[in-house]
Amino acid sequence: MYKNSNAKEKSLGIDMKITESGNSSPRVFNCKGHEEPSLTEFPSEVLQRIFSFLPYSDLFSSSLVCRMFRDNASVPVLWKKFPIPADEITQDDGLARLLSVLKLPRFRTMQHLDLNRVYMAMAKKKKGGKNRPVFADHSPDDEAKFLEVLEIASKLPLTWLNLSYNDLPSVFVSSPQFLSRLILNIPHVDLFATCRGQGASSDFIGNVLGNLTEASALHTVDLGGCDLDTLPIYLVTKLNYLTNVALEGAFMTKEQARAFLVDMAKGSKIKKFDIGCELIVDKDTYSDVFENLDPELVATALNNLEHVIYNKLKDAKGDCCDFPPDLHLERFLQVMGRNTKLKEVEMEENNFFFVAPEVVAKAFNNLEHLEMKPNPYNTSAQIVATLELMAQKTRLKYVLFEYEDLSWLNPGLVARAVVQVEQVDMKCGLSRAHVNAILREIGASSRIRRLNLRDNDVSKVPAHVRESAVKMLRREGGVVKLKQKGKKLYLKC
Predict the structure, then answer these.
(1) What single-letter DSSP state applies at residue 272?
(2) Global pTM value
(3) CA-CA distance, 393 to 271, in Å (whole number)?
(4) Nearest CA to 108 among 48, 44, 178, 157?
């Protein structure tokens, strides 16, 4: 796409050679000979406010207009969230070029920094061998430059740092305490796959967890894809000190996982726990480590959090009824329906087929946030039971319906369920009967405040029904808008 790296960097607003323009822009006169006011006459505060609304490519172009524009378009506050393409810069021109970019004055208040893959463990082929990869050491010069990059990062007011896929174990050997301090002083750090494979050491993660205290800035960490099985159990349990933890595809022992969940069940600071769809792998059996633990322990621990992402069957093939009943999932949902701290779960890829409809209904209606999406492992009876209970009694505050078609569901049932939730987003096709039923159901006893019917036409609904529904939705600060597009009318929030 780009003929050279300079062209690419210019398009991204990080050109290293900024040409100094004159102090003033050309004078402009109108047809009557009167001089038009110029943007250069605006105070710096006004110019910077205007520049704050520009995309970074336009912001960079503005800096080339004149010296005044350059000075005002280059203030660090405007560039604090600029996505420096560190991986691309490093691949094309090396770490030295990345260092030069990071040293630009405009980036001294940078808050987000993605250093993903800029210092990966190198692989090379054995001469005369079977092309099996072996890890090679980095050159001393590369290691020194990467350390300098990290030193610059340590002086920035970062709120997020991505170090995923980098060869951090080698850095830890030369600068153990520095690496730990860097990670602990940033609120959100991604360390995905930074220690995985034969010979990869997790010592630096152990050092970070060992120095983790309540006073540490670090509260969110991604350790997915990391080999954690060599860490002492007491260090693994310290993950409960954090607020958000991602462990998708990490390796653990059964004993580590049990101790981690026991502490989680007793009381954890974790609010969001992301296992994704690759699961936490049992180091000995290479299976889902949670499946090898007591279902009651897993259910109790996960229900003591606020947000769980846990999709077991995302890549599974075959008929859902061919899979054995998921006892862990069933027990998890039973506890969720009875007593839970959970507000949101992302588990739509799990096999709910053998779980009783009333169990699913109680569990989902005990949340605050629910996204109902197509899932071949859900039964129609479970969906109907969920809506029936939603119409009667629910804790839900937000529901997203993301189906292609809801015509198979009774319009009255859908309407009675929808109006008992504060915010509803209908990202699906609705029949005229469904639209009419929902708007007619909105009344004084409804809990709904925000309703987005998306691309469903409401023009065929009687005007008095629409007006009444809009009036009820706008009470107590509710938000709703009617938008005309040709002959069609849309209701959106």
Answers:
(1) E
(2) 0.84
(3) 25
(4) 157
Q: Is 14 exposed, middle or buried (0-12, 13-18, 19+ CB in 10 A)?
A: buried
What is the model's pLDDT at position 236? 97
CA distance 32 to 456: 53
Which tens digit of pLDDT belongs to each residue from 131-149? 333 344 567 788 899 999 9
Amino acid at 228: L
Q: β-strands 133-136, 122-125: how paired?
A: antiparallel
Distances (CA, A) of 433 to 38, 381, 430: 58, 21, 8
Residue entry with tokens 């065929």: 460
Residue among 207, 208, 206, 200 nearest 227 (CA): 200
Q: Quote the CA–CA distance of 198 and 33 in Å, as a whole number.
A: 77
> Residue 78 carries which DSSP code?
G
pLDDT at position 87, please? 92
43 and 51 in contact (C-beta within 8 Å)? no
Number of residues that make up the chain: 493
In the predicted model, residues of the chain with pLDDT beneath 50 are 1-5, 7-8, 11, 16-25, 123-136, 314-315
Measured from the Cβ of residue 18, the count of other Cβ atoms closer than 10 Å reads 13
Q: What share of the chain is helix, strand, coil (3-state, %, to 5)?
A: 40, 15, 45
In sequence order, the 6+-apart residues with CB closer than 8 A to the CB of 352 are 329, 333, 360, 375, 377, 378, 379, 382
Give the residue from 213, 200, 214, 215 showing the smallest Cα distance to 223: 200
Cβ contact 252:205 at 8 Å:
no
Nearest to 333 by CA among 416, 308, 101, 163: 308
